[in-house]
Write a structure and sequence with these properties.
This protein is of the alpha+beta class. Strands 1, 4, 5, 6, 7, 8 and 9 form a seven-stranded antiparallel beta sheet that branches. A three-stranded antiparallel beta sheet has the order 3-2-10, with helices on one face. Helix 7 runs antiparallel to helix 10. The longest helix is centred in the C-terminal third of the chain and has 28 residues.
Length: 330
């Protein structure tokens, strides 16, 4: 690279889903290079799960990033890069970028500028590195203001942040799998929608993976999230807005999924899911407002509206399943 110039790989700054970095970061890299990865997302991010007691209890249920078929992955255990390549971790990162490879790694954000815990406390979190110049690395993630943006850190800051994490943790060097093509899969999506509506486990999409015994699934997971949130605000604590943002993202994907299904059946005007998404956006805004008011009564409207949203969604999705020939339809 030219001295002083920033070498960067392509990034999609606004991936279709992005509540949590664990999928937002890889999708930012993949969608920038392969737009058909959108179909991979639609095929795999339908089910929701709630796992009581987990640090992230409410989330999509999806295959772990290192098993995605849309990426070429090289998992490197910390320390092995030095043993096998006789290079510093920063040099490994820069070489990867030179060869079109993004770097997804766990780091200690105490050393990462523009993070909530920078120079204040130790917090292990993920980061995506996708560019560099002579002394600086370019990173993607949520900053101290909660914005999903590009920030920079010095080579030394990354080195310190990297080495503060346990040596057994993987660092992932990856690129997009250009040889794989993705298409919307109607039958698979219908099965996933059915599991979501009926609150049935979808652990079959990730075989040989241990499933949380008390996990709730689908619409049942949403109701458990709602109860969790109600308890939180009754205790005088702030709601976790990420729950409501993820619920909104779920509706955004479902809206697109339904449109593609109806298009495949040549029944574009059969149902209208748009208002489900719009009401989910209103619910998220009410949650933000409830955090300002800090009162249990402010949550009453959220609960009433979300239960109505779920009921109307169930009616629409059952109608779609009925059209597909599912015995679970109306």
């Amino acid at each position: 690279p030219i001295l002083g110039a920033m070498t960067k790989l392509k990034i999609e700054a606004n991936p279709i889903i992005g509540t949590y970095q664990s999928y937002a970061l890889p999708l930012s890299a993949l969608l920038a290079n392969k737009p058909d990865v959108l179909y991979f997302v639609l095929n795999n991010f339908t089910q929701l799960t709630y796992r009581k007691g987990k640090s992230i209890p409410f989330n999509f249920y999806y295959p772990s990033f290192d098993s995605w078929t849309c990426v070429d992955i090289h998992n490197i255990i910390r320390g092995d890069y030095a043993k096998h390549w006789s290079l510093s971790v920063v040099d490994c990162v820069k070489r990867s970028i030179d060869n079109g490879g993004y770097v997804y790694s766990m780091v200690d954000e105490y050393y990462v500028p523009h993070r909530n815990t920078y120079q204040r406390s130790h917090f292990i979190h993920d980061i995506l590195i996708y560019g560099y110049d002579e002394h600086t690395l370019c990173a993607l993630g949520y900053d101290e203001h909660g914005h999903y943006v590009e920030t920079t850190l010095s080579d030394k800051e990354f080195d310190d942040a990297f080495h503060a994490v346990q040596p057994g943790r993987y660092t992932v060097f990856f690129s997009y799998a250009s040889y794989n093509q993705y298409h919307f899969e109607p039958e698979f999506n219908l099965q996933m929608i059915r599991d979501y509506v009926e609150s049935q486990p979808t652990s079959w999409i990730v075989p040989f993976t241990a499933v949380h015994r008390e996990a709730a699934w689908g619409m049942g997971a949403v109701l458990d999230m709602l109860e969790h949130s109600k308890q939180t605000i009754m205790e005088g604590k702030k709601l976790d807005i990420r729950f409501f943002n993820l619920y909104l993202e779920h509706k955004k994907l479902m809206d697109l999924r339904i449109r593609l299904l109806l298009e495949a059946w040549n029944r574009k005007d059969f149902v209208d899911y748009t208002h489900i998404y719009e009401d989910a956006a209103t619910i998220k805004n009410l949650a933000i407002k409830a955090n300002v008011m800090r009162s249990a009564s402010a949550f009453d409207k959220i609960e009433k509206m979300l239960r109505k949203n779920l009921s109307e969604e169930r009616e629409i999705l059952n109608a779609v399943l009925a059209v597909s020939g599912s015995p679970n339809g109306l």
